[in-house]
């Protein structure tokens, strides 16, 4: 079900909130500066003409008058220049207003408030945020998450239907021919290493956990190829245990927002976790990743179409022109297909196509 049009969604956040205002302010300042610049020479010429006339008519009589007129003209010109310079300075100060506020030292309390406000804004924009891997049980999500390393969720979703159909249970995969598995997961890249990991997981689940994927962090991270990130994805989305998923999008965005300067995913996870109640961790992760994939891209963030501009200290890192920024969006609300072949029922976009479909 489509909840709103692309233009509606985009206009709500960026253009209305700050982008539009800023542009309007800059335009106003530019017009004023131009008018002042035009007036300055005009005033100068008028003053000069006045001076000449006075000089001619009072020649020999009032020799001090021209000097006075010249001084008046000069002071008018100086005043005009001063005004123009002041307005230019004001315009310069106004342009990076969003960034300037956050460049000032921010107390922990202010940071917590700003971070939670960003989360609330994202919750409105991405009310349908969800994990973008297709899965029906913890076993499928665990395997899909391992396969998603160094590739897109879309590619994983296009690959796993064949894998799960051939090996529906951990014991099936544990007893598989590795070469067959390699062929099935080849489209996800690094297929030999990934085959070892997922077959190792299947054996460990079969032998050590009675065929069921464990629901505890300390057990999950003992499985081959499973780190904290993978474990939190599984815990948060298959077991309902709150967890923060620090993937490449999450790390990039929280650093842009100055929630933390850490680059190590475990440290990022702890720093961000300290800003939010546990109950928010899983949904926050989805929203941040959605925002990173759709608007705040790695190389070309669409700042001019971003809903959290006033809260972002990195505003201006990407395109600020609303029209140009809108063209950078990768957004389901604009009719683009999502990553999942089987998205949740409330997803407002199109499902992704199967592998090889046009
Ligand atoms: S960097 Fe730009 S696109 Fe990213 S969150 Fe900030 S304002 Fe939005």
UniProtKB/TrEMBL annotation:
Transmembrane segments: none annotated. Residues 147-294 form the HhH-GPD domain. It is an enzyme of class 4 (lyase). GO terms for molecular function: endonuclease activity. Residues 1-108, 333-358 are annotated as: Disordered. CDD domains: ENDO3c (cd00056). NCBIfam families: nth (TIGR01083). This is Endonuclease III. The gene is nth.
């Amino acid at each position: 079900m489509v909840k709103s049009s692309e233009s509606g969604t985009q206009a709500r956040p960026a253009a209305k909130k700050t982008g539009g205002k800023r542009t309007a302010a800059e335009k106003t300042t530019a017009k004023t500066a131009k008018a002042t610049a035009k007036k300055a020479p005009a005033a100068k010429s008028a003053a000069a003409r006045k001076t000449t006339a006075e000089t001619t008519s009072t020649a020999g009589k009032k020799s001090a008058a021209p000097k006075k007129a010249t001084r008046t003209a000069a002071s008018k010109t100086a005043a005009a220049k001063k005004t123009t310079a002041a307005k230019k300075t004001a315009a310069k100060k106004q342009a990076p207003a969003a960034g300037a506020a956050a460049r000032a030292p921010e107390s922990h309390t202010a940071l917590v408030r700003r971070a939670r406000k960003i989360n609330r804004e994202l919750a409105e924009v991405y009310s349908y945020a969800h994990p973008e891997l297709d899965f029906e049980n913890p076993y499928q999500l665990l395997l899909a998450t391992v396969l998603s390393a160094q590739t897109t969720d879309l590619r994983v979703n296009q690959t796993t239907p064949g894998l799960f159909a051939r090996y529906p249970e951990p014991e099936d995969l544990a007893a598989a021919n590795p070469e067959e598995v390699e062929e099935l997961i080849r489209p996800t890249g690094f297929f030999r290493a990934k085959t070892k990991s997922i077959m190792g997981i299947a054996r460990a689940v079969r032998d050590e956990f009675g065929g069921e994927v464990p629901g505890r962090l300390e057990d999950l991270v003992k499985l081959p190829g499973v780190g904290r990130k993978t474990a939190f994805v599984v815990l948060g989305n298959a077991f309902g245990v709150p967890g923060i998923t620090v993937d490449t999008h999450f790390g990039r965005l929280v650093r842009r927002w100055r929630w933390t300067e850490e680059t190590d995913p475990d440290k990022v996870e702890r720093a961000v976790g300290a800003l939010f109640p546990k109950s928010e961790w899983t949904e926050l992760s989805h929203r941040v990743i959605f925002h990173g994939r759709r608007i705040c891209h790695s190389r070309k963030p669409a700042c001019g179409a971003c809903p959290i501009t006033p809260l972002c200290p990195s505003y201006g890192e990407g395109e600020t022109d609303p029209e140009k920024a809108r063209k950078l969006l990768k957004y389901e609300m604009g009719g683009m297909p999502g990553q999942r072949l089987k998205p949740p029922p409330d997803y407002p976009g199109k499902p992704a196509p199967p592998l090889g479909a046009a």
